[in-house]
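#struct-pred

JT: dropping the chains for the assembly here, can someone run the whole complex?
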Amino acid sequence: MLLNGQPASEITLLDRGLAYGDGLFETILVHQRKPVFIAEHLTRLRSGCQQLGMELDTVALESELASVLATSTVSHGVLKVMVTRHASGRGYRPGLATCNRILSLHPAPDYSVSHPEQGICMFVCRQRLSRQPALAGLKHMNRLEQVLASREWPDESFMEGLMLDTDGLVIEGTRSNLFAVINGKLLTPDLSQSGVAGVMRNVLLKNFGAGVNVAPITLDQLQHADEIFVCNSINGIWPVLSLQTPDHTWHFASGDRARQAQACFTEALV
Amino acid sequence: MLLNGQPASEITLLDRGLAYGDGLFETILVHQRKPVFIAEHLTRLRSGCQQLGMELDTVALESELASVLATSTVSHGVLKVMVTRHASGRGYRPGLATCNRILSLHPAPDYSVSHPEQGICMFVCRQRLSRQPALAGLKHMNRLEQVLASREWPDESFMEGLMLDTDGLVIEGTRSNLFAVINGKLLTPDLSQSGVAGVMRNVLLKNFGAGVNVAPITLDQLQHADEIFVCNSINGIWPVLSLQTPDHTWHFASGDRARQAQACFTEALV
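RK: done, full complex below.
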């Protein structure tokens, strides 16, 4: 692990990332020692920093990324980047715009390789996402809603949880974005009020182009979808075979759009 | 500073408080070496832990609090307690319910002693608070909304910022709760959807008893208030003499209810 370019395992107890979640993060797939979608991750990180009023030293960050990848023995894994605003005394009001860069390389999650092929079961979480346009889309470090939602499913037969916002609109998985074919049209939820605009989602939006619409989706619409899949930049694309509430289970077939999305992901690995 | 009872200045970069803001905090006034409203702070912390599904070792915490106060040279200051959920691998889903206890003692903020007597100017922030009943009331570590709001006022002539929720209801200051006399009645905003249920607010609610109503308050109602004050357990009660937006300033007189609330605060210091 690197903290501002120096090997480190700890950070000051006064850090604003710890105190207030005053920061952003990225989790980047490392495949054959190469960071996948690295340009997209860095673009999102820079844009998030700008939105929160933080100044990121991107030259230093890129050099640290290269150094971590060059010196590690992990050839397939997850590179996590956190940036937290520098502290200058107690209190919410930031005194400085500069921020810490924290890099850590982890083994890849040991999910079954069959998920992309065979699909997953998704739990419909009771925990809702609040609507906050000032933070929507950002991968910031205020993640208690996702933490609470992730506690809900009873066992590991559920690979993801579906989250709605407080208005009842479908937004995303706890750690993935969602696409669905509804009445023959490929849709993904609008994230202007809630949710994380994932790198994989952005790649797929570009890839599908005019073939995909960003639109509000209700749970009722989703339950009648022809096809559903979730995506993130670490695991790629997982078809959703069932949505489950305590009362009911809805079943879906894996479909063509998930296969097209998977092709887009596997191309990036080459 | 103590981390789980041991002197420490740093915490692991893998901490869930840092990664996700997965924790809670209290800031406790220390006056003449004694922690003020300590029972109320511990009650709120325990209740917050229960709500987030964290198990806090309160026996250890109380012993650590006593130890920090006994060994420090600070007789007047702020004792900050953070609790963060123990990590067990990457990912939102918590593996453990136990948590870290982080204690730090800081000098008291050097605010002018004249604020309780002469009152303060309050800036009306554009940043809104989202509505999230699962987290409302808790002093959790997801505080980006307060951080963004605290960047808004232009200079230190503003001692606090007023925050509304995304529905336009008045909720609180960035680091204080608010009371207002409107049409002769003492009111404080309902915090069931947004905001932090402060310890000083709770003390005042008990103290005023039937003389105060918890109710929704609009900005328009507040601008026509007879008297406004903000409170927290560190600074006590500050009368609000003006509310300012970029376009307009509303003026208020300091009043009897603020004086009564101040008496309640100063009694606790004896």
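JT: nice. Chain B has a mean pLDDT of 96. DSSP finds eight helices and 16 strands in chain B.
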